[in-house]
């Protein structure tokens, strides 16, 4: 009888584990030294793109085989590649990049031709502070909004005149990381490391809504708008067991978080998951970026590196 009870308990635990980690491995990138931070996808090319911190390049991945080729070679930027996004309509891939050495430190937003990987333009910035341009999103007109982490700012590349405007600068968005936009281009959603998710109304460039103190939305890296909600990867936590992918539901005005649903937490594949992309109602995330094993001097301990796992979730 005891053996039977133990078997039932074991089965229950296994089912619980499967239910919590409702993911599957989409593909594996066999490059242990890549240290990727940003991921994006193009329906035009049918390919995923990963930006490498360690190898200062962007690779293009065949999702069916996991095979990859260099989309942007290491010598083109020579910088850590961070957040990325694709403009399908105009045929661009945008990427945030950060210089390896300093001070002064160099940050850049790079615009590439999607079909060829040709570098079209860089928007450079030199600063005494490290880790500035971090993540990027696009509105329906092709304008690019990006976070300046070190300077607590949001900037905009205005596509029509090819200029850069300051959208917002305040400790209200202290250490901004992930950024996304509402489908109607009305709101920007900013993942502040310390303040949680904040909402900027673009017509008057003001913070709207309030922080839901009952829901922890601090320490989020990748952030995306999805069907009246926000999805984020919360990886800046005190205990690694609290690393999670969560969905934050918004009120009717789309300015306040009303509830949170955990998509996945403490997954055994997690080793600082960073960003993700949504493709056909599926979420693809970098499960094991291994950024904690990297410094500006390079990889700290090569012996513990793993192949890169991209996990897939049905939303």
What does this structure look like?
With 315 residues, the chain is mainly β. The protein has one domain: TolB, C-terminal domain (Neuraminidase, 6 Propeller). It is 7% helix and 50% strand. The protein contains two helices and 26 strands. The protein has helices spanning 2-20, 74-77, and strands at residues 23-29, 36-42, 47-52, 58-61, 68-72, 80-87, 92-98, 105-113, 119-127, 133-138, 144-148, 153-158, 163-169, 176-181, 187-192, 196-201, 206-208, 220-226, 229-234, 244-250, 257-265, 276-279, 282-286, 294-295, 298-299, 308-314. Strands 1-26-23-22 form a four-stranded antiparallel β-sheet, with no helix packed on it. A four-stranded antiparallel β-sheet has the order 2-3-4-5. Strand 20 (244-250) and strand 21 form a beta hairpin. The chain is globular. The relative contact order is 0.13. Mean pLDDT is 92; it is low at 1-19.
How are the SSEs placed, and which strands pair?
Blueprint: H1 2-20, E1 23-29, E2 36-42, E3 47-52, E4 58-61, E5 68-72, H2 74-77, E6 80-87, E7 92-98, E8 105-113, E9 119-127, E10 133-138, E11 144-148, E12 153-158, E13 163-169, E14 176-181, E15 187-192, E16 196-201, E17 206-208, E18 220-226, E19 229-234, E20 244-250, E21 257-265, E22 276-279, E23 282-286, E24 294-295, E25 298-299, E26 308-314
Antiparallel strand pairs: 1-26, 2-3, 3-4, 4-5, 6-7, 7-8, 8-9, 10-11, 11-12, 12-13, 14-15, 15-16, 16-17, 18-19, 19-20, 20-21, 22-23, 23-26, 24-25
């Amino acid at each position: 009888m005891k053996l039977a009870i133990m078997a039932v308990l074991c089965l229950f635990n296994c089912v619980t584990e499967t239910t919590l980690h409702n993911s599957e491995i989409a593909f594996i990138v066999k490059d242990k030294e890549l240290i990727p931070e940003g991921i994006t996808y193009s329906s035009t090319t049918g390919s995923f793109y990963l930006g490498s911190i360690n190898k200062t390049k962007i690779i293009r991945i065949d999702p069916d085989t996991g095979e990859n080729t260099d989309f942007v070679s290491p010598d083109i930027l020579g910088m850590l590649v961070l957040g990325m996004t694709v403009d399908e309509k105009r045929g661009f891939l945008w990427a945030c990049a950060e210089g390896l050495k300093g001070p002064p430190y160099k940050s850049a937003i790079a615009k590439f031709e999607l079909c060829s990987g040709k570098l079209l333009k860089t928007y450079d910035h030199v600063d005494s502070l490290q880790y500035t341009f971090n993540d990027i999103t696009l509105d329906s007109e092709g304008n690019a909004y990006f976070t300046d982490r070190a300077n607590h700012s949001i900037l905009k590349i205005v596509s029509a005149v090819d200029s850069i405007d300051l959208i917002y600068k305040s400790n209200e968005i202290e250490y901004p990381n992930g950024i996304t936009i509402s489908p109607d281009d009305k709101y920007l959603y900013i993942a502040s490391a310390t303040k949680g998710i904040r909402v900027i109304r673009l017509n008057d460039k003001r913070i709207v809504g309030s922080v839901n103190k009952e829901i922890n939305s601090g320490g989020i890296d990748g952030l995306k708008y999805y069907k009246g909600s926000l999805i984020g990867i919360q990886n800046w936590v005190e205990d690694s067991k609290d690393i999670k992918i969560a969905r934050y539901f918004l009120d009717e005005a789309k300015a306040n978080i009303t509830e949170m649903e955990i998509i996945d937490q403490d997954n055994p594949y997690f080793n600082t998951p960073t960003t993700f992309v949504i493709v056909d109602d599926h979420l693809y995330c970098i499960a094991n970026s291994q950024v904690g094993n990297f410094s500006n001097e390079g990889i700290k301990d090569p012996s513990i590196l793993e192949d890169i796992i991209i996990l897939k979730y049905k939303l």
